[in-house]
Task: inverse folding
DNA sequence: CTAACACTGTTATTTTTTTCACACTGATAA
DNA sequence: TTATCAGTGTGAAAAAAATAACAGTGTTAG
């Protein structure tokens, strides 16, 4: 199969979540225009994306949800799933853990790390919190491949280095400090100020 | 000036934050390759973006930081600034407020809304929290133009309707429920699961 | 004075992403 | 039976975004 565009990968994740909730509502099929309107995109975009992963629909009923979920999962999941750690159990870290817990079976948050002893050796929403000094060890024994950084700006660089040293595969960074990691580690960063300033910019134009 | 691409708008916001921290470190000038490496992009991309907003650098010293900040602000800020409300003072809402407070002068969070009476009529990090029933009134009296949605999924649609009704200009939605708003309201949505699944996908390829 | 250097600014090109346009198809209704 | 309808699948075109290529230019070293 040809290389799938990055934007398509992002949408596949959204399609899957959209159809999961459709399925939960008892539906078995969905049309491209329905999926499109859930994501605020065009039906052609949907059909093209699904074409790229080789998913075909039926003419009269659209796409079969069960099949679609399987096909998307085939692409974006790994067989055994991946194990995730959150570093920094503050507001943001907690929000992520409560949000993700019980959502997806293939990505599981299995550990949190902090330096605050009030948080260490407790569970938050079922996830154990360890001292940051144990990061290297736990990453390895727990077979964690993805780290989510939610520590204060000043600590972010150091935490990233520890993650890289421990052999992490991917980092999702929410600290405002942009990180440098070797090319063998996939890095994704998000900062809400960018989003907010974008909203502000386009709001003022209206 | 020609229309500025959406991606450039996003990067302008990032450039400004990057140079602000450079400035805080006592620097007065920055080269395109330095800015580029801070954002993990190419120097050409930086020069092109700055060209689009009509900012020019000097040959030997690169871009003057003070000027650059002014020029970017000229584009993405409004004169009087914009006032922002957070709806849902949970983990996420709190994280945003503490993060934004004192960061930018032109976008100010001036109100939070919740239904939980433990939170209402108190301040969080200097921001007063009101009952959601007062939303319409406060949006108008406080002249709020942007709303950040951080309420549970089930409440998101209703909250969005209230914001639209109150005449909001832009919405930044963090609830996983994708919203429908009239075209007069600018909508931006972010969901960390998309980011995380993307990281997972590209991590497994490495 | 001249050449080498290390930047910026911009045109041209390439790549990526989205949209258009339309063939195809099975169901339905007249 | 035949026309219409409402969907999918996809090559082609367009639009958006990123990259390459390079001219221009103060600065510095010789
Ligand atoms: N990207 C975004 O959109 C966004 C939004 C809000 C906040 N932020 C940033 O995210 C970070 C966290 O925000 P928050 O509201 O959760 O802050 P917080 O203060 O509530 O939480 C930070 C946590 O990190 C822990 N910590 C500090 N140093 C550590 C270390 N070396 N190792 C492990 N843990 C450590 C602290 O004990 C604390 O529990 C901040 O840097 C904030 O600026 C980013
Ligand atoms: N987009 C993302 O990346 C992301 C990440 C984490 C969580 N989330 C989502 O964000 C939302 C908030 O997460 P959280 O961890 O802060 O949850 P939370 O439960 O800590 O906070 C939700 C807050 O909203 C308040 N609330 C409920 N109904 C309300 C209403 N009608 N009007 C005003 N306030 C109301 C609650 O009292 C509570 O204080 C959830 O839907 C969660 O799934 C999104």
Result:
């Amino acid at each position: 199969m040809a290389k799938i565009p990055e934007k398509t990968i992002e949408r596949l994740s959204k399609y899957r979540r959209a159809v999961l909730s459709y399925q939960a509502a008892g539906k078995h099929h969905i049309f491209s225009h329905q999926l499109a309107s859930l994501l605020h995109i065009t039906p052609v975009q949907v059909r093209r994306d699904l074409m790229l992963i080789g998913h075909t629909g039926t003419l009269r009923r659209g796409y079969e949800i069960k099949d679609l979920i399987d096909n998307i999962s085939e692409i974006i999941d790994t067989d055994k799933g991946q194990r995730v750690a959150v570093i920094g159990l503050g507001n943001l870290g907690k929000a992520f853990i409560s949000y993700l817990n019980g959502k997806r079976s293939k990505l599981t948050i299995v550990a949190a790390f902090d330096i605050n002893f009030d948080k260490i050796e407790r569970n938050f929403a079922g996830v154990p919190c360890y001292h940051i000094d144990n990061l290297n060890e736990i990453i390895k024994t727990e077979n964690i491949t993805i780290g989510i950084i939610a520590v204060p700006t000043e600590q972010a660089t150091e935490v990233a280095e520890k993650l890289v040293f421990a052999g992490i595969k991917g980092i999702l960074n929410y600290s405002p400090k942009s990180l440098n990691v070797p090319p063998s580690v996939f890095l994704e960063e998000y900062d809400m100020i960018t989003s907010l300033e974008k909203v502000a910019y386009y709001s003022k134009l209206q």
